[in-house]
From TrEMBL:
InterPro entries in UniProt: GmrSD_N
Family annotation (PANTHER family): DUF262 DOMAIN-CONTAINING PROTEIN, VNG6097C
Protein name as catalogued: GmrSD restriction endonucleases N-terminal domain-containing protein
Location of the region described as Disordered in the Swiss-Prot/TrEMBL record: 203-223
Domain GmrSD restriction endonucleases N-terminal: 10-203
Pfam families per the UniProt record, alphabetical: GmrSD_N
Top-level taxon of origin: Bacteria
Taxonomic classification: Bacteria, Bacillati, Actinomycetota, Actinomycetes, Kitasatosporales
Amino acid sequence: MAVERTNRDIKSLIGQIADGEIMLPEIQRGYVWRASQVAKLVESLYLGYPAGTLLLWKTDEGAETRTAATGSGQGLPSVMPLYLLDGQQRLTSLYRVFNDHPAAQIVFNIETEAFQNQSNATLRSPKWVRVYDVVGPDADSFTLQMQLRSAGLFIDNAEIGRRLKALEAISQRDFHMEVLHGFGYEEVTQIFVRVNSGGRPFEDDGPCDGDALRPVAGVPRRT
């Protein structure tokens, strides 16, 4: 048994989810984050704050899986997938933002650098930029910057460009990953039980993420 420690950027992780190379094991609960939590996550990444650690499990035996709440299907992986044990809320949220999910329409105020979910008020204001329009595959930063320059903002053109680049750069932010090798299903479940009962807490066990395991027969539920 071993624990591999590595890093991977958000764009690569989202690609792995789309390709079915990162999947959810059946013991995971469903996606529960609210739009306000998604906005806070994107804001933290924009500000360069720590984003926590991801915990994954690699096994040659395969595992029962559950459907991720990404809003789109996953491909058939060409390699053995990794099973995401801790970090589901964050990665699912980011996948939604980067893929224009209707429940993850996060917008950015170019003047105040605030983030929130799209609303009727933000739709009417040229100061609010949809994050997807900056980080999505069809993003046109030049056209967007031209539109913002004509919106009567209280920041200069150079600052508009700097803030858009900082927002675009969140796709290159790294997550630290811990990958469990050689652990059986029950052992993986027990790791969560021990962490929850006084061991080292993972970075996202608080309000940042809140991932938890679904109840397993004979094993206390992690909260």
